[in-house]
Structure formats: structure tokens, C-alpha cells
């Protein structure tokens, strides 16, 4: 391999495929390699045989679950926020032409032992069983304040400075109860913990407005999801990269990241071949994650995430028989003081990911004890009878350095959330480190057919 590339991308997870597509569109000469013979890496979608082979190599899938080809089970479940950053990237790159989307039927939050739909505007707040009469009035005023805010019009500020006052102060101004703060911050703002309350309110305001505007776009929930599973996303960005001249090599062993005497990236060795490039970007598994490394430690483990993939023969009880749903269980509701919320994502045959009358629910959270499966029990108990279950505990890796000194750029592991905003943040972060400037997305209408 005498050819030299601008960038080598290692791994075909969604983050890597998005970067590959964006870099190719930017005019970079990209070589994309993966040790696996399939797209998606950790974020792949598996058919029934692949699912059982991965988790129970000695067991074949039960015949009653239907045909292999009807299944595309996500290893890492995430939904797309209709007006969010990933949607903007999909529209900016025109990758939407390769994909079909369907709306997620409901967004729910767990409170006081039961699940309720997340209210997303003043009218839903008034009808919500999550609040008493007086609290509904306060919540209505809070949502009206957010919707009416105009930076240039002090009359809309009601004495609040979003850039100085904390979100805690905003909640206090409207007298909102802790339980109401829980569902606003966690189910709408999608914060993982309560730390955001002690910071300036602007980011929380923007997140809640993003949620409500996404909700207004399609009505039932703010989320959309690609037909045939999330594995379609990396493949679509790979197709984009190929159109712009990107080269793909699957089923290719990556034996060494080659550096020069100053520690700067030179190339990647596979067997006795070495291909050269100016930069490399890839997922943590290609840079010593989980292995004892001699010399430089490029990634560290910052926690673990537990996920349970559950096969159901019914919708989740309490969701109005929804064919798909997101449920967020705020940490405070189940006494998880140190870690993040518990997330439940459910899809079904409506999304072409499983056989008719089958539902796939995935429960996930960050591990904080030595009994991970016990930690997701509150989520599992909401599912009703579970036909089959596959539990994994995966390390969360993060790079130790930005990569600007040695031209080695490493993405982060996928977290426990059931939305893509943290993935989009990682794409933006890695892009800025690699290119030296912000990723600017074209201003287009982000209306994705769902």
C-alpha cells in the first residue's frame, strides 16, 4: 500500500462513520478500516441468529420468534431527536435520502411508582397526572416563560438572566416542586444528573426548547427512528463517504498504530502491509482500550454501562399500547444518588426490527455497584413478562489526550442514554480537534419524513 491518505478511520461505529462521511465531503482522502466483516461496530444491529450467537453461542434462536431476516436488534439503543444535532448532520450531508424514519410513539417518565407521558407544552402540562392543580398552574407559567423568552426583549425575562442565574433559581422563581423539576430536567432537558441545576440556566433552557420544538414537529413524541434499525445509520454515512471517494476495507486486522520517533502518527499496519496517512481517528478499541499498554495510555475507563436487551410479546404496560416508547426513570425516583437515570427504549415490528407481535425493549444505566443487573431492576419491572433477556456490561472509555500533538484522535464509548445528542457532541468535539475549527452545518429545513 504505497498510497497516502489524509485520514484513516478505524471502526465502523456510528461516530466513526459520521466523521468519515463529513471528512470525505470536506474533500479529505479517507481510508476506512474495520476488523469486523460488518458495519456498525458497537452500534450494530443484529439479526436473531447473530444475537444468540453473540450472547449464547451454544443456543439457537427459538423457532417461535419467527424468521431471522425479520430482526435487526440494536446493541446500543438510541433515538433521534427530531430537531437535534444528529438530524442536522443527516440533513447537512443529505444522508436522509438513504433512510426512512418512523416516529417513536411516546415519551414517558417514571414518578411515584408509575409511568406517565411527559408533558411538552402548556396544554399537556394542564392535563398531566404528574402534577396537582396548583402545580399545573405554576408549570404552565414556567413553560409560557420559556416559550416567550426573547433575548432582545427584557420584558420577556421576568427578572431572570439565563447566562448568570442558575436553573435552580429559575425553578424557584416559578415555585416548581422537586418531582416537576425531575421530569423537566431529566425527561425533557435529558440531563443525566442534577448537576445542571447549579449552573447558568441558558443550556437547560435551550435543551427544553429543543425538546418542545421537536415534539411540536411530529406530535406524539420528539423522537424518530430509522426503519430496519440503527445499523442503517453507519451504512448510510459509509455510502456517503464512498460517493465522495472514500475507500472501505472490512474484515481487516489492525495490528499496529505506527508512530515516528517523536510519537506522531505515521500509519496503520495490517499484517506486513502499512498504509500511511496524516491523521487517524477511531473508536477506543483500536487504541489499547481494555488492554495493558506499554508506554503511552491513550484511553482510560471512566465507568461501565449495563444494558439488558429484552424480547417481549406485548407492549410495555402503562404506555397506552404504544408500538414504541422511551421511558426515563430519574435517579431520585429510585434512590440512585451517585449515578445517572435509568433509560428504557422500546421498538417493534412497526420499525421493521422484529417479527410481528414482538417488542424489543432495552434497559440501560451507568453501573455504580458490583451488581449491575440489580441496578436496572426498576426498568425491568416496568416491562411486564420478559420472554428472553440478554445482559451486557460494557466499559466506557474516553481519550486521555486531545490528539492534536500526535494526530491520533479517539472517539468516546456510547453512553447509557437513549438519544443521540451525546454522540453528536462527540462528533463536533473530534471534528474541531482534527480540523481546527467548528463543524458548521448548512442551514436547511430539518424536516425529516417520519
Please tag this protein with its features.
450 residues, alpha/beta, FAD/NAD(P)-binding domain, Guanine Nucleotide Dissociation Inhibitor, domain 1, seven-stranded mixed sheet, 12 helices, 24% strand, globular
Provide a compact summary of the structure.
With 450 residues, the protein is of the alpha/beta class. The chain has helices spanning 14-25, 48-55, 85-93, 122-127, 133-148, 167-174, 178-188, 202-218, 232-243, 372-375, 377-381, 421-435, and strands spanning 4-10, 30-33, 45-46, 73-74, 80-81, 101-103, 106-111, 114-117, 223-226, 247-249, 256-259, 265-270, 273-282, 299-312, 325-329, 342-348, 359-366, 388-399, 408-410.
Arithmetic mean of pLDDT? 90
The share of residues in helices is 25-40%
Q: Determine the CATH topology of the domain at 4-60 and 74-100 and 227-301 and 397-435.
A: FAD/NAD(P)-binding domain
Query: Counting H and I runs of at least 4 residues, what is the number of helices?
Result: 12
Low-confidence stretches: none
CATH fourth-tier homologous superfamily of the domain at 4-60 and 74-100 and 227-301 and 397-435: FAD/NAD(P)-binding domain
CATH architecture of the domain at 4-60 and 74-100 and 227-301 and 397-435: 3-Layer(bba) Sandwich
Taking the alpha carbons of the first and last residues, their distance comes to 44 Å
> Which secondary-structure class do the elements indicate?
alpha/beta
* Percentage beta strand: 15-25%
Rg calculated over all Cα atoms? 22 Å
- CATH hierarchy, class of the domain at 4-60 and 74-100 and 227-301 and 397-435: Alpha Beta
Q: Largest sheet, described in full?
A: 7 strands, mixed
User: What spatial form do the alpha-carbon principal axes imply?
Assistant: globular
Number of strands: 19
Amino acid at each position: 500500500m504505497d498510497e497516502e491518505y489524509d485520514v484513516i478511520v478505524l471502526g465502523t461505529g456510528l461516530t466513526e462513520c459520521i466523521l468519515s462521511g463529513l471528512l470525505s465531503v470536506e474533500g479529505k482522502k479517507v481510508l476506512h478500516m474495520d476488523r469486523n466483516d460488518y458495519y456498525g461496530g458497537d452500534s450494530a444491529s443484529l439479526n436473531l441468529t447473530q444475537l444468540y450467537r453473540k450472547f449464547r453461542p451454544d443456543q439457537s434462536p427459538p423457532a417461535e420468534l419467527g424468521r431471522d431476516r425479520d430482526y435487526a436488534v440494536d446493541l446500543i439503543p438510541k433515538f433521534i431527536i427530531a430537531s437535534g444535532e444528529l438530524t442536522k448532520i443527516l440533513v447537512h450531508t443529505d444522508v436522509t435520502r438513504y433512510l426512512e424514519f418512523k416516529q417513536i410513539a411516546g415519551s414517558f417518565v417514571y414518578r411515584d411508582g408509575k409511568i406517565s407521558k411527559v408533558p411538552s407544552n402548556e396544554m399537556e402540562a394542564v392535563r398531566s397526572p404528574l402534577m396537582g392543580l396548583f402545580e399545573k398552574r405554576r408549570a404552565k407559567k414556567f413553560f409560557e416563560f420559556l416559550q416567550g423568552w426573547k433575548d432582545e426583549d427584557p420584558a420577556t425575562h421576568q427578572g431572570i438572566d439565563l447566562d448568570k442565574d442558575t436553573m435552580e433559581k429559575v425553578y424557584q422563581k416559578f415555585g416548581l416542586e422537586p418531582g416537576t423539576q425531575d421530569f423537566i430536567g431529566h425527561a425533557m432537558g435529558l440531563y443525566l444528573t442534577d448537576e445542571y441545576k447549579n449552573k447558568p440556566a441558558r443550556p437547560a433552557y435551550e435543551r427544553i426548547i429543543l425538546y418542545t420544538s421537536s415534539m411540536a414537529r411530529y406530535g406524539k413524541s420528539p423522537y424518530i427512528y430509522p426503519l430496519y434499525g440503527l445499523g442503517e445509520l453507519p451504512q448510510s454515512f459509509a455510502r456517503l463517504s464512498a460517493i465522495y471517494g472514500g475507500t472501505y476495507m472490512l474484515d481487516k486486522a489492525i495490528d499496529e498504530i505506527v508512530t515516528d520517533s517523536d510519537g506522531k502518527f505515521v500509519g496503520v499496519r495490517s499484517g506486513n502491509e502499512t498504509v500511511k496517512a496524516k491523521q487517524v481517528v477511531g473508536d477506543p478499541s483500536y487504541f489499547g482500550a481494555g488492554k495493558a499498554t506499554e508506554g503511552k495510555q491513550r484511553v482510560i475507563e471512566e465507568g461501565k454501562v449495563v444494558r439488558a436487551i429484552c424480547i417481549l410479546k406485548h407492549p410495555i404496560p402503562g404506555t397506552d399500547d404504544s408500538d414504541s416508547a422511551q421511558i426515563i426513570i430519574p435517579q431520585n425516583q429510585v434512590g440512585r444518588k451517585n449515578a445517572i437515570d435509568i433509560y428504557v427504549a422500546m421498538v417493534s415490528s412497526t420499525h421493521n426490527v422484529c417479527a410481528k407481535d414482538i417488542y424489543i425493549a432495552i434497559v440501560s444505566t451507568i453501573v455504580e455497584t458490583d451488581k449491575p443487573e440489580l441496578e436496572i431492576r426498576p426498568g425491568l419491572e416496568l416491562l411486564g413478562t420478559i420472554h428472553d433477556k440478554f445482559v451486557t456490561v460494557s466499559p466506557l472509555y474516553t481519550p486521555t489526550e486531545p490528539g492534536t500533538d500526535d494526530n491520533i484522535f479517539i472517539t468516546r464509548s456510547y453512553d447509557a442514554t437513549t438519544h443521540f445528542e451525546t454522540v453528536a457532541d462527540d462528533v463536533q468535539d473530534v471534528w474541531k480537534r482534527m480540523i481546527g475549527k467548528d463543524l458548521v452545518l448548512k442551514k436547511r429545513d430539518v424536516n425529516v419524513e417520519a
